[in-house]
Each structure stands twice: as C-alpha cells, then as structure tokens.
Amino acid sequence: MSSRKALVRRPSPRLSEGLVTHIERSPVDFGLALRQWEAYVAVLRADGWETVEVATADDCPDGVFVEDTMVVFRNVALIARPGADPRRGETAGAEAAVTALGLSVNRVRGSGTLEGGDILKVGDTVYVGRGGRTNAEGVRQLRSAFEPLGATVVAVPVSKVLHLKSAVTALPDGTVIGFPPLVDDPAAFPRFLAVPEEAGAHVVVLGGGRLLLAASAPKSAALFGDLGYEPVVVDISEFEKLEGCVTCLSVRLRELYA
Fold this sequence. Notes:
With about 260 residues, the chain is an alpha/beta fold. The chain has helices at about 30-45, 90-100, 135-145, 220-225, 235-240; strands at about 5-10, 50-55, 70-75, 75-80, 105, 120, 125-130, 150-155, 170, 175-180, 190-195, 205, 210-215, 230-235, 250-255. Helix 1 links the parallel strand 1 (about 5-10) and strand 2 (about 50-55). It starts with a strand and ends in a 5-residue tail after the last strand.
C-alpha cells in the first residue's frame, strides 16, 4: 500500500460558476479544464502517488478545489467549514473519503470558518492565513485540534489573495516561497525566497526533489532548477481563472501509512 495518497475530485460541470474574489471573471472552457485535471492526476500517479477520488459534487462549482475541505496533521483530519457559504456542500464527501482511509476526524464548528487553502505546513509548524475565508474562531479551533499533537500554529495575515497558499508555499527544505506583491508579511516566515511570478509561489512537493508547478511560471521553474530541484510542469490555465493553483486540486497525505 502506498504511503503517499492524494485525494482528488473531478470537476463539476458547473465549474465556470466558481467563485472569484481578487480577479476579474473570464470564460472557463470546461472540456479543457477536464483534460487539464486528468493530466494533473496522471502526473501524481506517475510519481508514485495513489490517487483517491472523492465523491463528485456536481452542484458545487468549486468542488474540484478539494484541498479547501480539510486540514490533515499526522493522522487527524480537521474538516473545514468554508468561509464562503456556497462551498459548504463540498465537505461531506471529503469527510467520507478520509474516514474510509482510517483517519480520525474533527470538524470546525459553530461560528468558526476555515478553508484548507489557508493552511501551510512546514514541518510541525502550521501557518494559518487569517483573511476572508478563515476567521479567528477557525484559527482557535485549528489550534485546539493540532497543538496537542505537537503542532505549532502560527497565524499570519492574508488580505491580497484568496488564501494563504495563493500567496506562499514551501520548498522541501522548509524555505517559504512567494511573489512579494501578494505576500502581506514576508517577515512572518524564518526563511523566505521571492519568486518572479505569481504562479511560481505555488508548488506541490512530489518527493525526490521534484516540484509540481504551473506552466504559467517558467521563470520560477528555471529558478527552482538552478536550486537543484526538478520542476514538473502542468497546464492548469482554466483553474487559474478561478483563483486555483496546483495545491488546490489535491489533498496530499504523506504520513498515513508511513
């Protein structure tokens, strides 16, 4: 059994109705989006990840962005409570998927809101973006769920982009990367590396020094290559029109069976 699993969810036919907050809406080609999603999933599989399809959510235009449905630390999944009301129907199928995999499940409750795209894990440090989709009560519940497991939860401001991971992700060595005009406070991170493109701030660590990133960030791909990493490039143009990025399209589970 693979020690690396990735939860994915097939795009809804209503994808073009997905929410946009910080960019202007532009037409989405669903057929192209579906082919791009299939290519993204194929890259994960080719790299040794076992992909697990979450039940489709055709009535949820943003359901493909499955990362927002949860946060996983060690063997515990904290099921999100999206800050955008139309997205709250996305979580039930995702919860069923991680329950079937044997994770312990907690949920954000009451007035708390939290979306998985606001969470960046660097080792045992869990950065949480406090912004439009994750509120102070959501941050409190995240701390309550994960600090007893050994996490250090650090809240950082997010005002220029949709989610924290719309602004920053991290390299395998723990260096946080971001496109400076979109990062509220680069000093919040002990090691920060500026990248030359917005999409270059979004990487999925595949393993073995390989970094998955969007085709729209060729200068950043070259930078990562110069740093000794192997860029693996995918075209996700249709999802970028909805403020999506490579991290949003999966939930990566690295430790579950390790």
